[in-house]
Amino acid sequence: MTTQIYGEKRKDDKANLWSALKEHPIVIVLGFCAATAGAMAAIYEKVVIPYQVKVLEVQVADLKQQLALLPVTEKTVAEKEAAIAKLREEVVALRQRTVELSKENVFSTDDPYPKAFRRVRLGDLFSKVEQTYPGQVTKDDPDDTYASIKVEDFFFRIVTFYYDETVKPHRVTLILFHVKEDVPLKDLLKARGAASLNQSLEENVRANVGTLKTQLTERYGAGAVGKRETVWKVKGLIITLQDKGLFSIDKR
After folding, report:
1. Which long-range contacts (CB under 8 A, 24 or more apart) does 100-106 make?
2. How far apart are CA 37 and CA 79, in angstroms?
3. Which of 28, 65, 189, 250 could form a disulfide with 174 if both were Cys (CB 3.0 to 4.6 A apart)?
4. Distance CA 127, CA 136 (A)
5. Residue 103's CB: how many other CB atoms inside 10 A?
6. What are the C-alpha distances in Å from 161 to residues 139, 172, 225?
7. CA torsion, points 117, 235, 237, 228, in degrees to nearest 10?
8. Which of 53, 61, 62 lies closest to 9, judged by CA?
């Protein structure tokens, strides 16, 4: 009897909720903005998607409550758990899309170099690296054929510039960007230890690699998908994004 009353109350609550949603200011604003595509896109990214996430989270909580009140049978439990799992997948997908949309695209249709790293390009004199980043350059190569800089960037932590030592004057032939981990290295070491560090690092850059891939695809199309990398040809350059967290620009 308690279950039936509770079920009827939940139905009434849901009816009242959706009735209120129809009169919600957000929905009214969306109606007024229907004639303006740009405004609609902005509202969709900043308001609608986060709102959808909240609605789905409420539905997940509601299903959990229903599951607790239902008679315990394998069929009912399996059905509700499947429904909860599906809703959770939708929540994760929407959250990831929110992250992707909230980050400004770091690439331009007419320039495949990341926006924050356009001062040194392929073909520039290698000495320009020192001139552009004074006091920031590290040279760990005994043959002195590359130099790296540590950067403060949302996506990248290190940028490495290479040159061909057989060609003079030395010019930049490859630029390699190391994608930033989602979790700081020191925290990763504490959590998993040094033994599994390589695998942990690769797993830890996946979100940023995924967002970069989305942005590159939006700018330049799907690219050529390989086993562990995706390659784009843009403006005479070869753009490569590796799953393990390396992004490179060269002219192979």
Report:
1. 100/211, 100/214, 100/215, 101/45, 101/49, 102/45, 102/46, 103/154, 103/211, 103/215, 105/215, 105/218, 105/219, 106/155, 106/212, 106/215
2. 40
3. 250
4. 13
5. 15
6. 10, 6, 25
7. 90
8. 62
Q: How far apart (Å, rounded) are the C-alpha atoms in residues 92 and 52?
A: 11
pLDDT higher at 63 or 232? 232
What residues contact residue 91 under an 8 Å CB cut-off, 6+ apart?
A: 53, 56, 57, 60
Per the listing, tokens 């998607």 go with 49
Q: How far apart are CA 183 and CA 245, in angstroms?
A: 13
The three-state secondary structure class of 155 is: coil
Task: Give every CB contact of residue 172 below 8 A, 6+ residues apart in sequence.
Answer: 120, 121, 122, 123, 124, 125, 126, 128, 129, 161, 162, 163
Average pLDDT over residues 47-57: 66
Report the pLDDT value the prediction gives residue 73, as an integer from 0 to 100.
66
- pLDDT, tens digit (0-9, with 9 covering 90-100), for 95-130: 556 555 556 788 998 899 999 999 999 999 999 999
Please tell me the total number of residues recorded for the chain in this structure. 252
| pLDDT tens by residue, 9-24 | 455 554 454 454 445 5
